[in-house]
Amino acid sequence: MLYTHYVKTRDLRIFEILRMHAIFETYYDHGPIDTFMRDLTKKDGVFLVRRKKDQGIVGFSTLGIYHFEHEGRRVKGLFSGDTIIEKAYWGSRTLQTAFARKLLIEALKRPFSKQYWLLISKGYKTYLLLARNFPTYYPDHRQEHAGLKDLVVNYCEQLYPGHLDQERMVLTFGEQANCLKEEVAPITEALRQADPAIDFFAQRNPLWAQGHELPCVAQADLWTFAKAIWPFLWKALRGSPAARPQPTAARDTASGANP
Questions:
Q1: Structure confidence by residue, pLDDT tens digits, 73-83
Q2: Is 65 helix (H, G, I), strand (E, B) or coil?
Q3: pLDDT in tens, 215-240
Q4: Based on C-alpha coordinates, what's the Rg of the chain?
Q5: Are 117 and 217 in contact (CB under 8 A)?
Q6: Phi-psi group of 88: left, alpha or beta (phi > 0 → left; psi -120 to 50 → alpha; rest → beta)
Q7: Is 30 left (phi over 0), alpha (psi -120 to 50) or beta?
Q8: Of the candidates 74, 214, 207, 113, which has an alpha carbon nearest to the alpha carbon of residue 156?
Q9: Which of 53, 104, 125, 157 is 20 to 30 Å apart from 76, CA to CA?
């Protein structure tokens, strides 16, 4: 059995950081400790996934909380960074439970403001989490959301200046970009035929295996929770079993660039 708790970055202990990096290296290529540490220091906190029996860390997800101007309004963005769960525990919903609670808590702090979930993904499973649980998001395989596309451009230029290819709407970080290991989340033809969202991801980010990132955003304010996300939140808070495969690895950085 697992549980997840949120820890401020400044309160992490050295052995916890080293354990996080060891898990990270298991699933990613080109992830040196110095880059990992540099990225970590830019985050507000980390969700640590632990085994109950011995408190061992088996997964984590970093989180950055940003406030920025968009279309004349000040908005909040919760940015998911590195997110890894060991393969033996794929399918657990404990991390989703903790993340859902954090989204709701942050939305309650500014109930009349816009709040968004920001993430960039090189793996299809992260995109599925977005597409299956949030009603309004970009890029949407069903329809366009021009306003959200502008928001993606906005935050990418602020967080990753010069790395966004606005024609293809992907982030590129060079030849040594951090990337998922080949066996972690391959996209097969059978998967593409079975799920339009997976096929869409593969089309939008054809070089995902080389570390190219698909920047995404979802509306996640109180209005969205009240109108559409409550079923997702209720399942997460209750910790009910996952109905579908859940993401096992998401990445917010490459060799110099969430959850």
A1: 899 999 999 89
A2: strand
A3: 999 999 888 877 665 565 565 555 54
A4: 17
A5: yes
A6: alpha
A7: left
A8: 214
A9: 125
Residue 250 φ/ψ, nearest 5 degrees: -130, 155
Going by C-alpha positions, the residue among 225, 198, 185, 241 that lies closest to residue 101 is 225
- Higher pLDDT residue, 243 or 220? 220
For position 185, what pLDDT does the model report? Answer: 82
The whole-model pTM stands at 0.84
- Rounded CA-CA distance 112/103 in Å is 14
| Per-residue pLDDT at 55 exceeds 70 | yes
Rounded Cα gap, residues 34 and 42, in angstroms:
13
Q: CA-CA distances (angstroms) from residue 84 to 22, 32, 103, 213?
A: 11, 16, 19, 16
The residue written with tokens 């959301």 in the block is 145
Contact 84, 23 (CB under 8 A): yes
* Separation between Cα atoms, residue 23 and residue 141, nearest integer Å: 31
| Alpha carbon distances (Å) from 107 to 66, 81, 112, 138, 142 | 13, 19, 9, 20, 26
